[in-house]
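TASK: fixed-backbone design
INPUT:
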């Protein structure tokens, strides 16, 4: 009877491929809107400074000079400087492509990681399923971001905080692939270590989290060795390589000579007990604030994952949990690990400045929070599956109800797209003004002018300055270096 039931449910799962496609397309809609808004990005704020250094010193020279000497930005973040230079080699239009490129890379790497991870967990999945999950997690993270414009649209905010999340997602996908194959070459181990080094060079905030993830992976694999799991030895090797690369990145971030000028204005670092208390308190406030301040997105994330878990569990030969107490323990573990990882994302700023990170940096904490809520929803769905799987009528009811819930909640990203597109007109107008001003500056420079007066534009990115009337303002100086001018002043009124 059970075999017949499983076969029937599996056949129904095959016929429900349309459900996965509809859900995947629904959660991709807001990501397209994010990419559209990002296409209107140009240089703003710190972007001018990276571009100015690239103009004067080139790619390698920029990384070298800002790492070993003072600079108007965090020169110790070698990956940030390097990839900013690559973008500046293309020009301002690179900024318009980066948000969409980031979304494609993030969804793509997360899709692959989920596909391999679910296969390792024993699930039989269709191609649209990991795409749907990846797009949903990325949408939830961006939609709940405390400062989306800085975290995604503004290049100088996206690269230090969102880019390492993407790099680490890709790194985890590569690690899971090696574990799934049950073999790894020395070349692959070396590449994983180098990848971890590069991912760790974007910012301190994300690198501390990266180390925590790699250490947790090592601990899980060590436990697997004790249980004679065939994948565990390969897992230890690849996670160890990633951990070593991360530690090297942290060391390079700390010992950079360019840190000297910043350390002069930072307060004395707290002792470990004070740091621990401050970090755990801020993590608690972040979790509570996320649940209380964003009840609807968290509700959607939890029950979307729960409904998906039920549908997948009904087609699985064996349940994830062989005892009711196991999912309860899993819920506790997911919460504690998520809480710990959120604390790690807050630790760097708490140590360096005794304060909380800038809102743009909290994109890292937000991603962990989304994963934690969705993970708890997944476990709740697995528990529900175990309770309803035996009586065939309950299984059919659970499958129908979960399908309905999944489709209804898939409408939420589509609904949210309207609010995302509210920014489109403003950003499009700003881009048009910026392009017009850029052409005028280049024309003035090419005609032999070295001191140029330009139009003053609005600030498209909150808390990020624009060119001002004072030519000595640091953004003006950076822009002058970028355009190869002696002086640039924003004093002319805009015609728009």
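OUTPUT:
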């Amino acid at each position: 009877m059970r075999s017949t039931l499983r076969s029937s449910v599996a056949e129904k799962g095959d016929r429900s491929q349309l459900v996965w496609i509809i859900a995947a397309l629904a959660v991709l809609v807001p990501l397209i809107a994010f990419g559209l808004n990002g296409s209107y990005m140009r240089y703003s704020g710190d972007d001018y400074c990276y571009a100015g250094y690239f103009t004067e010193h080139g790619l390698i020279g920029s990384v070298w000079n800002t790492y070993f000497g003072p600079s108007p930005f965090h020169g110790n973040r070698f990956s940030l400087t390097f990839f900013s230079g690559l973008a500046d080699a293309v020009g301002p239009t690179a900024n318009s492509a980066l948000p969409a490129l980031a979304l494609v890379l993030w969804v793509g790497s997360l899709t692959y990681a989920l596909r391999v991870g679910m296969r390792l967990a024993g699930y039989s999945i269709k191609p649209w399923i990991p795409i749907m999950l990846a797009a949903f997690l990325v949408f939830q993270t961006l939609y709940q971001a405390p400062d989306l414009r800085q975290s995604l649209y503004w290049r100088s905010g996206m690269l230090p905080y969102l880019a390492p999340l993407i790099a680490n997602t890709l790194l985890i996908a590569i690690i899971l692939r090696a574990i799934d194959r049950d073999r790894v070459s020395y070349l692959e181990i070396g590449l994983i270590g180098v990848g971890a080094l590069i991912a760790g060079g974007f910012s301190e905030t994300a690198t501390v989290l990266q180390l925590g993830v790699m250490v947790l992976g090592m601990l899980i694999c060590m436990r697997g060795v004790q249980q004679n799991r065939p994948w565990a030895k390969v897992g230890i090797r690849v996670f160890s390589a990633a951990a070593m690369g991360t530690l090297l990145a942290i060391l390079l971030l700390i010992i950079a000579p360019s840190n000297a000028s910043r350390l002069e204005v930072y307060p004395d670092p707290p002792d470990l007990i004070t740091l621990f208390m401050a970090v755990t308190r801020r993590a608690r406030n972040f979790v509570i604030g996320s649940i209380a301040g964003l009840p609807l997105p968290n509700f959607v994330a939890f029950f979307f994952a729960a409904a998906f878990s039920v549908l997948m569990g009904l087609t699985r030969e064996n349940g994830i949990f062989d005892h009711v107490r196991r999912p309860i323990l899993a819920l506790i573990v997911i919460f504690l690990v998520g809480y710990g990882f959120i604390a790690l994302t807050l630790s760097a700023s708490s140590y360096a400045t005794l304060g909380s990170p800038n809102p743009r940096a909290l994109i890292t904490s937000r991603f962990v929070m989304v994963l934690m809520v969705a993970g708890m929803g997944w476990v709740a769905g697995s528990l529900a599956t175990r309770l309803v799987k035996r009586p065939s009528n309950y299984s059919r009811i659970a499958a129908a109800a979960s399908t309905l819930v999944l489709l209804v909640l898939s409408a939420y990203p589509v609904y949210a797209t309207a609010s995302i597109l509210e920014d489109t007109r403003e950003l499009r107008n700003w881009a048009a003004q910026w392009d017009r001003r850029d052409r005028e500056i280049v024309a003035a420079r090419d005609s032999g002018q070295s001191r140029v007066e330009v139009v003053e534009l609005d600030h498209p990115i909150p808390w990020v300055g624009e060119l001002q009337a004072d030519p000595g303002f640091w953004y003006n100086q950076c822009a002058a270096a970028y355009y190869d001018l002696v002086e640039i002043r924003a004093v002319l009124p805009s015609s728009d």
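COMMENT: Residues 40 and 428 are 6 Å apart (CA to CA).
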